[in-house]
Write a sequence for this structure.
């Protein structure tokens, strides 16, 4: 039975709305992830990830045709954006 075989790579599960969501635990310990995994991680389309990589907004390394995303740098960039946003909100509200 084809349905009884375990899946390789990202696993999916059904959400209450019937949409499929990706299990992000499969690459939690890895530094380099694929464009498809990065798209799932960021919640954007694969084409959007390729566009961001082409424009230099996504930290990638190319080895031939293989494009890998540096998850550590991506997480760091996202954290800096979040911290900058919260700092600007606090500054605007007079907290800082």
């Amino acid at each position: 039975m084809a349905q009884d075989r375990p899946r390789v790579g990202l696993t999916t599960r059904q959400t209450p709305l019937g949409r499929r969501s990706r299990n992000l635990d499969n690459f939690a310990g890895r530094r380099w992830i694929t464009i498809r995994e990065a798209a799932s991680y960021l919640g954007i389309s694969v084409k959007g990830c390729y566009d961001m990589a082409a424009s230099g907004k996504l930290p990638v390394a190319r080895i031939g045709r293989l494009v890998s995303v540096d998850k550590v740098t991506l997480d760091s960039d996202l954290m800096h954006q979040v911290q900058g946003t919260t700092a600007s909100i606090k500054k605007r509200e007079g907290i800082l």
